[in-house]
Write a structure and sequence with these properties.
alpha/beta, 3-stranded mixed sheet, Aspartate Aminotransferase, domain 1, single chain, 10 helices
């Protein structure tokens, strides 16, 4: 709404993401233009970006997968060249950095998530980060059901009324309090998650190399958020075998995103098989391991040993 996206506009978005990324624009009548991902970081492939741009392109929406920054120098350069707004999906990337700069501060807008699966959570909800002051006043109205209620509370108007479209996007006070306590402990939470991530990475390196399994790849110029830990197996069959092996030992593991361009909705917008080959291949082979802040060292070691014992 802040970008005044309208029917017929195009928005470039990676196919390897969650549906809510795309729904934000589809609900305004826009057409998602799906772009493939890099095979290393699983982020939007910036080398393909320019050829997806047309006169109808009204926004570029990079997703910082697993809290690892997209190649923002190249993406920002292209966005500036074509004067296209950049909106970051930073649901995984709170506290992450790209070349020393915080993720979520590159685009004019950025979305955060505090869903139950995130590093910091209040169950549901999120936040909007504004890097362009021109959006501040209207964003405040949109979140207050289209009213100038916030200005009334600040004593700037003597009564409030309906002045724009909007909805109730406010976080309840009890959820905000639940989140605030975690924000106060964010350094401790992030340290614990870093230890867990590094334990997986170090413990599985030899096995992964011998089995041709890809571990997460973090560019040197990126500071990740330790949001999740995944494996990319050699084939879909290898993934199924490992999932079954872990399940037999009482360990839960799961896949992640399915290609949006091949979903029922994606096909309505022209998505077709072969359009995003890296996304299609990775989606069939990626496996997420148990990863949560209070995972014990003993349980994590059991996960590692069980993975190493799989027979293919």
């Amino acid at each position: 709404m802040l970008l005044e996206i309208k029917p017929g506009d195009d928005v470039i978005v990676p196919s390897f993401t969650f549906a809510s990324t795309v729904n934000a624009f589809v609900l305004r009548g826009a057409n998602p233009v799906f772009i493939d991902i890099r095979p290393d970081t699983l982020n939007l492939d910036e080398t393909q970006l320019e050829r997806h741009i047309t006169r109808r392109t009204k926004a570029i929406f990079p997703v910082h997968y697993a809290g690892v920054g997209c190649e923002m120098d190249a993406i920002m350069s292209i966005a500036r060249q074509y004067k296209i707004p950049l909106v970051e999906d930073n649901a995984h990337g709170l506290f992450g950095k790209y070349r020393g700069r915080e993720l979520g501060t590159f685009g004019c807008l950025a979305a955060l998530s505090f869903h139950e699966t995130k590093n910091l959570t209040c169950g549901e909800g999120g936040a909007l980060v504004l890097s362009d002051r021109q959006f501040t006043e209207r964003a405040e109205v949109l979140r207050e059901m289209g009213t100038n209620r916030s200005r009334f509370f600040r004593g700037l108007v003597d009564k409030y009324t309906w002045i724009d479209v909007g909805s109730n996007y406010r976080l309840s006070e009890i959820l905000a309090a639940f989140l605030y306590a975690q924000l106060e402990a964010r350094e401790q939470i992030q340290r614990q998650r870093q230890q867990l991530w590094e334990c997986y990475y170090t413990g599985l390196q030899t096995w992964a190399r011998s089995c041709e399994v890809q571990l997460p790849q973090i560019p040197l110029h990126c500071e990740q958020t330790y949001h999740l830990f995944y494996l990319v197996l050699p084939s879909p069959e290898h993934r199924q075998d490992l999932m079954a092996h872990l399940r037999a030992h009482g360990i839960a593991s799961t896949w992640h995103y399915l290609p949006l361009h091949l979903s029922e909705m994606g096909r309505r917008f022209g998505g077709r098989k072969g359009e995003c080959p890296v996304t299609e291949a990775v989606s069939e082979r990626l496996l997420r391991l148990p990863f949560y802040t209070d995972l014990t060292a003993e349980d994590q070691q059991r996960v590692i040993e069980t993975i190493e014992s799989v027979e293919w």
